[in-house]
Amino acid sequence: MRKIGLVGLMTATLAGCGGTLSGAGPYKGDIETKNSTYKLVEINATTIAPFMRGTVKAPLARITNPAPQAVRLMGGDVLNILITDNVAEGVGLFAPLSTGGTQFKVRIDDQGMISLPYVGHQFVAGMTLVQVENMLRQRLKGVTTDVQAHVDLVGDLSGSVLVAGAVKAPGRFSTLQGPLTLLDAINQAGGPVLEPHLVNVTVRNGSQVTTLNYEDVLNGNNAVLRPNSEIVLDRARQRFVAMGAVGEPGLHDLPQQNTSLLDALGAVGGLNERNANPQGVFVFRMDDTQADTKPTVMRIDMRDPAAIFYAKQIMIRPDDTIYVTNAAVYEWQKIIGPIVQTMVLGRAVGVNYK
């Protein structure tokens, strides 16, 4: 009776192994033979060329010259207006220049209007500072003698830029001290919260939208911002998946902009020496450029000393999957282990019956 029970226990244990022996994915042999839906490439000196790093662009030597641009006024801007009368003090409507003139600080309302004595309500949204000065002189002509007007922008909603997203201190930043470049604005916002290659920068200026990787901006693609631009920093999709017998399986950020297979393996703790099959290192890649193109599976034999150099040259793309299969001996241990445990348990049960 004990033998029947022991056999039944062993049978049940082995039956349960069927769902656990697959590990994190398919076996090495299955990947190498069942390739009707993908293209399997054995990486060696003759096949590696299409997967190697392209020409790396050298940083640009140019320096962005922040030349001033015309500011068009809008609602919310604050103006400092100086009006002078070229007459003796106390005679004219406005103070003479020798005494500092008459100053007004006005905010453009939500309708784009300002209001001044002897000028009334005037629409100034969309005008430049020079155009506002000319308008004031024209409106005051005949009201006073030899009037002069000077307008300064002291609160520049129209000339400011907005920085939002993955920065340390998002906000709106003034251009009163001079034009801002893209790097100026990002630096004033505290810089990005992620590594440069993991950040995309989108610039909107009302007429066009441009998206750059922040590392490319640092390499010389800086630009002067138009007034009232919006800059949004967000996470670039620069991730890969590591599966199987690696130190840290899971979803990971690419450690740098041009990440090699060797870099990626290092970022996930390398191959697990206890159970990895170094001859079964695979890279699964979808090709989204053409709808009818099969996915590609690359296999590299890390037992080959030259494979270290191959792995350093193969570039990992975003959304690639690195999969390291288990060694055959480890798969065998997964079969033998439950059997041995069952036999030991059966022996212990037999001893107890005696």
Topology:
Elements: H1 2-17, H2 28-33, E1 39-42, E2 78-84, E3 102-107, E4 113-116, E5 120-123, H3 129-140, E6 148-155, E7 161-165, E8 171-173, H4 182-188, E9 199-204, E10 209-213, H5 214-218, E11 230-235, E12 239-244, E13 250-253, H6 261-267, E14 276-285, E15 296-300, H7 307-313, E16 321-326, H8 328-353
Parallel strand pairs: 1-15, 7-11, 12-16
Antiparallel strand pairs: 2-3, 2-6, 4-5, 7-8, 9-10, 9-11, 12-13, 14-15, 14-16
Family: Belongs to the BexD/CtrA/VexA family.
GO molecular function: polysaccharide transmembrane transporter activity; porin activity
Domain SLBB: 161-220, 238-324
Summarize the structure.
This protein is an alpha+beta fold.
Structure, described:
Belongs to the BexD/CtrA/VexA family. Helix content is 24%, strand content 25%. The chain is an alpha+beta fold and 354 residues long. It folds into 3 domains: 11-56 and 258-335, Outer membrane lipoprotein wza fold like (Roll), CATH 3.10.560; 78-155, wza like fold; 161-235, Outer membrane lipoprotein wza fold like (Roll). A 6-stranded mixed beta sheet has the order 1-15-14-16-12-13. The chain has a 5-stranded mixed beta sheet with strand order 8-7-11-9-10. The longest helix has 26 residues, at 328-353. The protein is rod-shaped and about 105 Å long. The two termini are 13 Å apart. Mean pLDDT is 83; it is low at 1-22.
Helical run tally: 8
Structural class: alpha+beta
Q: How far apart, in Å, are the first and last alpha carbons?
A: 13 Å
Main beta sheet: strand number and arrangement?
Answer: 6 strands, mixed
Task: List low-confidence stretches.
Answer: 1-22
- Radius of gyration, in Å, reads 36 Å
GO molecular function: polysaccharide transmembrane transporter activity; porin activity
Pfam family, one: SLBB_2
Organism: Pseudomonas eucalypticola
Subcellular location: Cell outer membrane
